[in-house]
Design brief:
18% of the residues lie in helices and 35% in strands. The longest helix is centred in the C-terminal third of the chain and has 31 residues, at 254-284. It folds into 2 domains: 2-136, Immunoglobulins (Immunoglobulin-like, Sandwich), CATH 2.60.40.10; 143-254, Immunoglobulins (Immunoglobulin-like, Sandwich). The radius of gyration is 43 Å and the shape is rod-shaped. By secondary structure, it is of the alpha+beta class. It comes from Channa argus. Residues 226-246, 287-308 are annotated as: Disordered. Keywords: Cell membrane, Disulfide bond, Glycoprotein, Immunoglobulin domain, Membrane, Receptor, Signal, Transmembrane, Transmembrane helix.
């Protein structure tokens, strides 16, 4: 037990003092950044490079640490490997002749996100290197819900939910003309027990809203992940889109009714005008009785000629 404690102190000393940790013969190179998917395996690549002067190097000590964790994740010492559950060397049959000391995480969790340090001691020198693991999780397709009933003339609202993502993402709202309505919404992000985020955004709709809306979920990098559509058309009886549960009934504003009234009035006025024009036209064609009362030569009737 004392020998292991001494070894840990030596590794700590190596990691703190670069001049001692690195020699001209040994150089440990790790990928600066790695991305791990939640629930999947993650690989932290670290490989020992040697100069031409080194022939058949042997590894004596390897330690893998996570910053903030007191106990080493993997320790190779005196020909034996001990590791914390869920961590191991990436090479299935790793031995002290294998210069690939990469770390494999069996089931990536949010807690695995962070910085890692690998220390190696060989018969030709020692070295250490750091790497960072970024854990990500894809958000579920958003689901839009509404209250069961919205009173006419009152404001309404719709709620968009997406969960199971990491790091913290964002929900944004757009109408059918691609106008951004996110400022009219309020989003809440809550962490679940496994460290993933649940996003919920409430969009306030004014009375008479007739636009089609789209809820879009973005990840922490600002990349679009998925979307759902919402159609508050009161005449459709139901709304379209992924995951929408209840129809919403909105009162149409006078700006929709007024044009209908105006058009109807114009049609009625046009019909009245046509009737008046037709009546005047008939009156102008009616024959006058004046010529029948003027001086005309009377044509004798047959009975009068007989008498003559």
């Amino acid at each position: 037990m004392a020998s292991i404690s001494t070894l840990l102190l030596i590794c700590l000393f190596i990691s703190i003092i670069p001049g001692y940790a690195n020699t001209d013969f040994i150089n440990l190179k790790c990928n600066a950044n790695s991305v791990g998917q939640f629930g999947q395996q993650s690989l932290l690549v670290c490989v020992i490079h040697t100069t031409q002067e080194v022939s058949n190097p042997e590894i004596r000590v390897v330690t893998w640490w996570k910053v903030g964790v007191k106990k080493p994740l993997v320790l190779f010492y005196e020909g034996k490997t001990t590791s914390t559950t869920g961590y191991k060397f990436a090479e299935p049959s790793w031995n002290n002749k294998n210069m690939n000391v990469s770390l494999l995480i069996a089931n990536t969790e949010v807690a695995n996100d962070g910085d890692y340090t690998c220390n190696v001691i060989t018969d030709s020198g020692s070295s250490n290197s750091k790497t960072h693991l970024q854990v990500t999780a894809k958000y579920s397709p958003p689901i839009i819900t509404t209250p069961k009933r919205i009173h006419q003339g009152a404001d309404g609202f719709v709620i968009c939910n997406s969960e199971g993502g990491y790091p913290k993402g964002q929900l944004r709202w757009f109408d059918e003309f691609n106008t951004d309505w996110t400022k009219s919404s309020e989003m809440v992000a809550n962490k679940t027990k496994n460290g993933l985020f649940h996003l919920s955004s409430t969009l306030t709709l004014k009375s008479g809203s007739i636009f089609k809306y789209t809820c879009v979920v973005y990840n922490a990098s600002g990349e679009k992940v998925n979307e759902a559509n919402f159609d508050p058309d009161p005449n459709s009886g139901s709304s379209t889109g992924d995951g929408h549960e209840e129809p919403v009934h909105y009162k149409l504003e006078s700006k929709v009714v007024a044009p209908v009234v105006v058009i109807g009035s114009l049609i009625v006025g046009l019909l009245i005008t046509l009737l008046l024009l037709r009546w005047r036209s008939r009156k102008a064609r009616r024959p006058s009785t004046a010529p029948l009362m003027g001086d005309h030569t009377e044509i004798p009737r047959c009975d009068e000629e007989g008498k003559a």
